[in-house]
Amino acid sequence: MEFVGNQINFKTVSATLAVAFFIGRIEIFGGIYPAAIALIVVMLAVSTLYIYLVPVVCISIIMGASGGVTAYGDIVSAVLCGLLFLFFHNQRLSVNQRTLIAIAITVICRCGCYLTTTAADTADWTVIVEEIIALAIYIRVFNTVAQLIFAPKEVDGLSGERIRLSLAILIISMIGALGIKPVVFAFWFLIIVVFAYCREVSGALVLAAICDLFWFCSTGTSSPVFTSLFLGLVVARFLVAATEIKYRKHVLAITVFAGIVLTTRTFDYSIAVSTAVFIAVPSEILKAMWIAIEGILFPDAEPKTDAGALDFRRDLRKKRDTFRSLGKIYEKGSSSGHIISYQFEAMARATDRYLDWIRRGEVKGRTHPSKSIEVGSATYSSGQISGDSSLCFSFDGNRQGLIISDGMGKGEEAAPTSQMVVSTLSKLLKAGFDVDLALKTVNEILMLESSSQMFASLDLAIINKENRRAQVFKMGAATTFVKHGEQVAMLKKSTPPIGVATPIKLEYLDVKLSTGDVLVMVSDGVCDCDRSDIDCRWLTERLANMGSRDPNVIAELIINKAVEKYGIKERDDLTVLVAVV
């Protein structure tokens, strides 16, 4: 049984450190490092944990600095930006606000560096303007890439062109940070010709322009290679169109390389190697690799297909963008406005899923794994009507949901609230709402009835039948128990009930289930049956010694034992839900 939560992913950390090191080496305009500062500004907006990137980029700048003492102005800027955004991380600053703050710090540090060193005599004050522009661009680029990586479902309003442009600038800049001209040109050439072959020549021309601009900013001169590259790509476009499919890759590579050799009158061995590699890799492998990368980085990419399918995709994207724009109109309004906002966002996300299914060709004949989760339940009412409400249901083809809710009070007093929570939440999940939007919607509905003080505990478990991973959301709910063999784990989370405050902070416990594992959810009445046993050890021991794998039998045995422990005391409503893998 594997539990995952706030654990450090060392692979992610290692990859982030490597990327940060190369970004810290991105030097332009003869000794400035705006990309390093931009990385700190953006990553600390993602999480304050990324403060560890500050010393990495500083060391990287020192190791690669060729601009003398002026580079230390950017080191100080990166450190100050890191400290400032670390201590004021609770302030919700927009990208524009963070950019302005970073620019102000950078300008002050740059001026201070000039005035406190001998560099003031030879200072080129136009560099400050250049750094301001470069810093603003890199912050935008890194912010777009961060959204794509850390919040792929929240890339509202980001066009595919903006994502591609940001990724292109990032990749080209990191390659340029290598600093070795033959290696840099070889990698740039390979990227450009692969893009021209797998995607389109016009996009390859844009990549070449970005490479030329970066090279000019880094060295102060424009390389004739890029002028030749432009001409070669334009000529290749017409030659490739008139060539048989199986020879098009060879014609493209040879035409572009020959154009460089003929116009520059030099034979570049590094580019020759790139050309040979491009020709040697089979077309099928090259395109398969491109589709795989494009599917990860460009989820909205349109593979070559018939015009009708493309129009259908474009229409879906327009609807998605419309839903999100309408949602933004209401998101800052009242509670009722929030509900409308969540509904539009849910429709936008559902449309995104349809687009993803279409891209992967899974719209027709989608199959789901056979049912692998058995569920059961048992209840006990202290009166004629139980204040607890519960439900086990399947949704989204391969997910099993279990809900327990206990309204304020008990019996008839608590039942309407808990029934509304369970019914509404299950219907929203079945309708395609993501869990976060469904919970926020139910919370806002309860908040609308704040005059009646409507709130309830909520215990929600969602089990993915395919990977057998369960997400357990707790809002004022009792402990959940997971039995694995003869060991029993307890899942606890101290959070307020649903309907108490807005906005709600959504957190969940993530658990990996194995064959034979038993997940047991109970209402607080079960845990309160023995006030002297706060940790509910009686239930842990009973589950550990229980041999049955029938979920209904397990639930009934727990209820019977809880009733027995109450004895003659006044009993609360009792509910038990059991899921067996």
In short:
The chain is an alpha+beta fold. The protein contains 20 helices and eleven strands.
By DSSP, the count of extended strands is: 11
Task: For the largest sheet, list the strands in their spatial order.
Answer: 1-9-6-5-4-3
Overall spatial form: elongated
As an assembly, this protein is: single chain
* Stretches with pLDDT under 50, minimum 5 residues: 1-8, 301-307, 364-369
State the separation between the terminal residues, measured CA to CA.
12 Å
Number of helices: 20
Strand content: 5-15%
* Biggest sheet descriptor: 6 strands, antiparallel
Topology:
Blueprint: E1 2-4, H1 10-24, H2 34-46, H3 53-64, H4 71-87, H5 95-115, H6 126-150, H7 160-176, H8 181-198, H9 201-219, H10 224-241, H11 248-264, H12 269-280, H13 283-297, H14 307-330, H15 335-360, E2 374-380, E3 388-395, E4 399-407, H16 415-430, H17 435-448, E5 456-464, E6 469-475, E7 480-484, E8 487-491, E9 508-512, E10 518-522, H18 524-527, H19 537-545, H20 551-566, E11 574-580
Antiparallel strand pairs: 1-9, 2-11, 3-4, 4-5, 5-6, 6-9, 7-8, 7-10, 10-11
Helix pairs in contact: 1-3, 2-4, 2-5, 2-6, 3-4, 4-5, 5-6, 6-7, 7-9, 8-9, 8-12, 9-10, 10-11, 11-12, 14-15, 15-17, 16-17
